Amino acid sequence: MNFARTFEVFRQEFAHNLKRPLFWVQILVLGFLIYMMSTGKAQIGSGDARVGGKKAWITSEFAVGQMLVMLMAIVYVFFVSVAAGMALIRDDEQKVGELLHSSPLRAGEYIWGKYAAVLATYVVILAFHIGFSMLCNHVLPHGGNAEFIGPFSVAHYLRPMFVFGLPLLVLFTGTCFAIGGATRMPVLVFSFPIGVLLLDAFFLWDWSPAWLPLGVNRLLQFADPTGLRWMKETWLLVDKGVDFYNKQPIGLDALVIAQRFAIVAIGLGCVAWYARRFASQLRGVRVTPAVAQAALAAPPSQAAAPAAATLAPLASLGMRAKAPGAVAMTMEVVRTELYQLVRTPGLYLFVPLILIQTLLNEYGVGAFDTPLLQTAGSLASGMFNTLTLLICMVILFYTTESLQRERGTGMGAIYYATPLRTGAMLAGKALANTILALAIVAACFVGCVIVLAVQGQVSLNPAPFAIVWGLLLVPTYLVWTAFVSAVFAVTSNRYATYAIGLGTMILSGWFQMRGKMNWVFNWDLWSATKWTDIGTFQYDALPITLNRVTWLLVAVLLTVLTVRWFERRERDATNALLRMRPGSLVRAMGALTPFLLPPLVTGGVLAWQVGDGYQGAAAKKANLDYWRKNIQTWKDAPAPVLAGVDLDVKFEPTEHAFTMKGSYTVENATDAPMVRFPVTVNPRWKKLAFTTNGAPASTENRAGLVIVNPPVPLQPGERMTLGFSYDARHPDGSSRNGGYGMEFVTPSSIVLTGFSGVTFTPALGFFPDEAVEEGKNDSDPREWPEDWWKHEHGAAIPTAGRWFDVRMKVDVPANLQVNATGEKVAESVANGRRVTEWRTDHPVRIYNLIAGEWQVKKREGVAVYYDARHPYNVDEMLDALEGARRWYGEWFAPYPWKQLRLSEFAGWPTYAQAPAGNISFSEGIGFLTRSKPDANAAFWIAAHESAHMWWPNMAMVGDGPGCEVLSEGMAHFSTLLLVEKMRGERQRQSFAKQMESRYGRLRQKDSERALVKIDGKLPGDTRIWYDKGGWVLWMLHRFMGEERGLAALREYMAKYRDAEVPASLEDYLAIQRAHAADTTAFDAFTKQWFFAVVAPKYLLENARLEKDGAGWKVKAVVHNVGDGRMTVDVAAAAGERWPEAGKKAAPWKAERTVITIGAGERVPIVLHCAFQPEKLVVDPDVRVLMLERNKAEVKLAPAAGPIAMR
Amino acid sequence: MLEITGLVKVYPGPVAALQGIDLDVPPGMFGLLGPNGAGKSTLMRVLAGLLEPTSGRVTLDGIDVLDKPDWLRERLGYLPQDFGFYAHLSGRDMLLHLLRLKGVQAPGGLNGLADELLERVNLTFAAKRPVKSYSGGMRQRLGIAQAIAGDPRLLIVDEPTAGLDPEERLRFYHLLAQLAEQRLVLLSTHIVEDVAVLCPRFAVIRGGRLLARTTPRAAREAVAGLIFEGVVSPGELPELRATRQVTQELLVEGRHLVRLYEPSGAAPMGFQAVTPTLEDAYLVLMRAGALPGLETSAAAEVRP
């Protein structure tokens, strides 16, 4: 290789790259994103959200590395593919190849010079990225986010650049360069980046169920070229604490080092391979001697030309020409475009790509990592984003190349001089590309069919596909095609079109990620819609419709602009300037008005809907006004308690509306007369009116807080009737961008509760926490005194402090059935309406109402109301309900109500709630799952919700810190007991592992507080309530022993079931302590698990397996690198503990030892086994909560030593 | 009748490619002759509706084709100077595609017509080969086939014989001659022979300006008796170039054969009067900028 020649090639290409719009658009996009990230809080999920708490710096190596990798995978990759992939194709199109290669320039010099220039261009961009990040983070002033900026360290930027950035650049540039060179097909160069992005964004970066074997996980880490999966799985999923992330470098292991070298080798290898191929084909493709012989032996192919004079005159051909119609022209263009389309491999790459993506749905998991039972709707909806991304990418590339084709092939002069109408040409090309899009959609459909067939449970229903892909995706396709065409028409430059198209997609994604998108601008409906079999798009039909119509009209406008601007006749620069004169512009706008006005009108209506909707500016203001107006006056003001509820409610579900006329019996439970009291109402309710004891009430509405003045002061212990009436809607107007409320009224599903917010009924009191908006009026959590629980306090659910009776009369359309709190005492159907009346057979603390079109399956005292299409897990749920009634009743207290019902609702929100006797249960979390021993969401969640009948429906908990552990933690703990009782030890361990895994992944080490301190105000608190709370309560129960533990539980229930002051966690522990056999040990246990933050993490070091006479000896050191002192089993084991039914497996054998190990301690162990053990496990029975359980297990092999495994 | 009035085209730079062309082109064959860079292709592209002029007017049979490019396209056959085809299509499929786009009809159907046209340009043997395997001459012939297809009122051919071997060039001359009987054919070329063979009328363009509009006969007559030929030694050439209007210097069998233009009509020493060719007239025009007796175009003003 001659350096001077190579450098000359490099110099030319490099200089050219630096002048391209592609380069500068990427610089602009990156600059914008980097600046925005430096002003925001794009840090890793660690730290302490409290004022002055430790914050994760956006300047740490971890933060820089994570952001760099994501930007490279999302932003760089497509720009790189265009620049690298087109480098050789462009020379072809400019026809400089023969000139270049007739010079002394060698093939290798040409290829490597070109490649080096492309790589150098992106190294320059990467250097800009890093340099600009340093500038924005450390030089530009920071006000509000200064605490997220750490001290400057050049290593924090350079190490991620060298370890993650540069290898990725080499991979992307090398592969795209080689693909472009080898195929000379522009569209194909984008196949690699699209494949990487789809696989990463929709699978590799997030799919990581707790049951995934470590080996498979490591393989997937290796397969992700960005390194992000490795980074997340190795360092980020389990929070290491903010000090670690802020100060430590990203520790590299053998896997990632090997991977980084591998991807550099693949990138450079592709270039080297192509350089050899290019050199061998530079003088034409070689043919075999046999082919050459045959060609030489063949007669000349050119027949002797007939003399011109012998031919009949042209006139004899009778040619005529008449411009064909628009349809004929369009179809002709389609035919030719398709001819070329099917002969390029793009089709055959993108189709399998989407097929693979679709088939991965088979491995989709939901709550508790339970495999999802996919339905046609969930598949259609689940693939919506993937299809949108892939089709938009494909359309960007195919449309651009299609429009460029005539210019690229040199055919433009002939083509554009034909009578072919510009509109027909554009339509024809768009239609041909539609075939490609359809092929992708068809492949996706085939994938969905395969998934459904493999599942073998849900039948194929084409309707959801038609609705989701037809009505929602097609407008996206049309508007994007029109946009790309319009950009090409304006710029007449394929690279500018790519740059603007990619920039648009990236910025759209940015606004999506930042939560700044709304229905008006969400042109591709990214993540805005949610499928439910029960009420297809009923929740937000209007904004969806307006959005699609608006963007269809935008597509029409863009199409008109494209037809007008498409440069079939090269514009004259002087005339172009003249057309910019005001008069010309006004005339042009006038001509466009018929196309411009409709989308402006529909978009305007949609904007008004969003602004006026329940997530709009007016609603936010009303919420803040409620807080501002009343916080100083009404905070902690006493309110009466509920002593009875009587409701008459009539629903008009098609309007999302209901009319309420009802009353509360309220009681002054304080020691002082109550002259006035606050009642919180929904500020959007209409025709709101109150009565006191049947007479119009004297009230003052203070921004949603109604102050009721009783005719005479309400004396201590005195009751009165507070009547109310209003018209309400839920959802009231449009959401902002597809957010779904917990409660709603739709034609096929209604969920309303009387305890969460004021969606259904007024709430007695003032609730400032309900009006807190992040970044506006939020605050640090309250610091409670140590003995707060000894003083009087309220209930966690303010309206649920007392037992009361409820009567509800519910009027719904006759197609709906109703389940309300209590027993149905009357039902009538007339004039298309169903009227039911409900009365509680035993007092309650919480009430609700659910309606739907259901099938029902009942057993003694329990019933599941479900959509007819979702019968799959009903028996599993019934088992849980039935078991709960029996076993919880036996363990804790008898179940007081006649029925325990579970009713399915449309799965816009995915949650379940358990007011007395009437569980509402989303279709999305248990009805559509595939239960298996390792993951059984249907049973587990039903058991959890059933446990809420006891905790807190019977034993209400207080409103202080730690109390929710007695509700959510107790429900999880009860579930562990019930699962073990009814489903066995294997499922108990699986459920415990799931809880442990969720706790490990979602805790924030620096802000985690002791269980008695958790109040739900910090990130991660909720998971601690549920998962750590449940785990620790179960460990405590085991510590106490079955008999003592249950006795304590029964005493707790008996004491707090009717208590005036609800329970705290400290109250619960006091009762448990009274039953403990060893109070010293009890105190030691509770001190670390309830009053401190501990999380053991065990490693097995120096594990060795040696022959020991006829048996085997295992030696190892157990190291607790976490916190806490616990007694834990260590077992050397072999065989399959729970073999799958019908599968042959070696029997389970285990040899155990028990150790007690504290924080930071190392304990050596020796185990003698009569069998050859295969693995060494700490806590084989899953009895001690720990972090990263997969690291507490090693494989044992006599020669090779230990291998880490799950 | 094609009427071009005050046609100006200024490219950003700025480069004035056409500086006010006024030209009436009657039905039949009309040649546009000029050196490379004279503005011929710019003029052809403007006439074909592919390039917007800076100013000026072009009408065909009274219709302003700059305002109505769609009207023109339905009546246009165009062979550009530089063009390509869809590489993966066969020659026949490519031609059929363009025939359909042009709305060409024939009594025997399009397939038969495509075969006939391919035969006319001697491409029958390669009809089913992909265009990417065609030589430059074959591509040029395929371009000719599409240009002559249909019944174009105006046929614009820009450097059509470039890349054609003599036999094919002759074949093309015949085709064009047939076509010119009933329509307007505008032949742009820098090859004087093309004009001499085909065009009863032609115009000469240089530097974006029209130098002459004439016939081959008139052009030849304008220099009749003024062209002289002689053989000179290499040493005499520099002085001859300095003192005379040398039009051609040819090496014939090792001797320097020189033709020169002598406006006075007096034969220089050693030179003999010869019958002028069109090329003589063209070259004299290129050097002198004008010829007595030829109609010329006044320099046009560039209109904003």
UniProtKB/TrEMBL annotation, chain A:
UniProt keywords (A-Z) are: Membrane, Transmembrane, Transmembrane helix
GO terms for molecular function, please?
metallopeptidase activity; zinc ion binding
Please verify whether the record's keywords include Membrane: yes
Q: Does the keyword Transmembrane apply?
A: yes
Domain (Peptidase M1 membrane alanine aminopeptidase): residue spans on this chain:
930-1061
- Show the InterPro entries listed in the entry: Peptidase_M1_dom (IPR014782), Peptidase_M4/M1_CTD_sf (IPR027268)
UniProt protein name: Peptidase M1 membrane alanine aminopeptidase domain-containing protein
Q: Which organism is it from?
A: Eiseniibacteriota bacterium
Automatic annotation (TrEMBL), chain B:
The ABC transporter domain sits at: 2-232
Q: Which SUPFAM superfamilies match?
A: P-loop containing nucleoside triphosphate hydrolases (SSF52540)
Keywords assigned by UniProt, alphabetized = ATP-binding, Nucleotide-binding, Transport
Note one Pfam family from the annotation: ABC_tran
MF terms in GO: ATP binding; ATP hydrolysis activity
The organism's place on the tree of life at top rank: Bacteria
**InterPro entries membership:** AAA+_ATPase, ABC_transporter-like_ATP-bd, ABC_transporter-like_CS, P-loop_NTPase
Q: Please name the PROSITE patterns in this protein's record.
A: ABC_TRANSPORTER_1, ABC_TRANSPORTER_2
Question: What family is reported?
Answer: Belongs to the ABC transporter superfamily.
Xref: PANTHER family: ABC TRANSPORTER, ATP-BINDING PROTEIN
User: What protein name does the entry list?
Assistant: ABC transporter ATP-binding protein
Species annotation: Eiseniibacteriota bacterium
